[in-house]
Amino acid sequence: MIVIKEDGGGETSPMAQPQAQSYLIEVIKARKMTDKTANVKQALNQAFDGGGKATGKYTFNGHPVLHASSGNGQTSATLFFYDDAGKLMLFAMGEHDTSTKYKISVYGQKGTDFAKGKTIAV
Known about the structure:
By secondary structure, the chain is an alpha+beta fold.
């Protein structure tokens, strides 16, 4: 997995699941969202296991967007990513808003449908 940092701030080096998990846990710790730790781990398992689900009509960098989500409306985590020839490219993190809507609450990409604070419907 490669993480595209917030608002186009560059990319990480490719990471195996344990490294990606450590990286994402640090992201939520920095934002004082540690209640999402277990959900981030579970969503990451889904992503690495090929369990990403289509995210409606949304695209990012010319690729269909996938999402992996864990948790309920009170504490949840949703990862938004795409598959680039077998490389998972994670570019936003959020949470459930409703059963069919997700809020980009952890980090996103300015000027896109996945900007922090936006809500998307799937």
